[in-house]
Structure prediction request, 470 residues.
Amino acid sequence: MDPKERMKIPRQKMPEQDPKERGGNFDEVPYGYDSELAVTEATRCIQCKKPACVSGCPVEIDIPGFIKLIAEKDFVAAARKIKEENALPAVCGRVCPQEDQCEIQCVLGKKGDPVAIGRLERFAADYERAQGEVAIPKLPAATGKRVAVVGSGPAGLTVAGELRLLGHDVTILEALHKPGGVLVYGIPEFRLPKAIVQAEVDYLVKMGVKLETDVVVGKLVTVDELLEEFDAVFIGSGAGLPLFMGIEGENLNGIYSANEYLTRSNLMKAYKFPEYDTPVAVGKQVAVVGGGNVAMDSARTALRLGADKVFIIYRRSRTEMPARDEEIEHAEEEGIEFNLLTNPLRYIGDENGWVKEVECIRMELGEPDDSGRRRPVPVEGSEFRIEVDVAVVAIGNSPNPLIPDTTPNLKTQRWGNIEADEETGKTSREGIFAGGDIVTGAATVILAMGAGKKAARAMHRYLMGDNDSK
Prediction:
């Protein structure tokens, strides 16, 4: 089939649960491609001589290479082609914002719809796992060097996998009782099933990566103590400290940070209470403050927990919402109500200290701010109230200060992020590297993985005695 014929094939829609049904369960919403849909979609790729899509991928996957293998129906080979650069393809195929990275670079997107790169990545990874064809790559001779990785989120898992493939002895230290970091505590089951994350972690363990859970670095052991035992340390502890607005009534019962709300539901299985003894307030009228993916996750979780009405409160318009279009559309389909150009002023409680209302004010958009988005400006005299019995604040997170505070001479930025070189992950301390949200602040899974990959390369040079890496 010549390129012109390929370009006439429409982008293949991915089957998914009906919105009326999925609002009542935590099952994954999209079903994924079957082999027929995957081959049809892969056939759309015109195999550019200079594929721009690869330059948009933070982990440098050979995108045309794996898509060609899918088109040829060699699905297992496609998965292994992806894994040459990306140890977490089933995760990335589900939560990576391909529309802003690889797919936005696709030539087909200039006059129509780009190739569904993320959906094809998910298909290949799922096929390999379902067929029991996951193979452990041949490892090089051991270098004798030992590395500690703090945190088992996307950055830490990537560093661990990359360094293990280079022959180093790697131990991951995770503070929580389950590995995966934000992948397990932050992203709901209906968007990223926990079994998928566990399968990706198991793959690394089979490669020889050691994993220790319930280890709070900065409490049980310091980074300096780790350096006495290991040759290098990577800090990928994420940005798990929730931000609040600091407005009146924010400490009332029934008001959660999105971090706590999602952790209770996702990691601690509160949605299965009392089977899992982790309660969470199940409101009938739930307000979620924020416009990012975490806000969408919180709102859609509240609906599945049994809320009658769920409101998104966001101070800008839909155009400025940072959440993925797909997540916004899914929320709208499920009946989530959007109060746009609206900002909370205060929470009002009942006589027992539980939230009963949130007072808001209408906003209008002024001139662009430093982010490039138009600044929201209050409309005088437009205050109004919404009845709520649960509110979730999803306006972002900052790094937990525990590790910086217990690691002397480790330089941090104004908001507590660790200072690290963008290309190498090197910090102000020799032998200590860092990457992901602990450096950048809350960002995407794939950007954290990209940072982990760069850091792993630099750590390898350092471990092998390259003086320029010290």
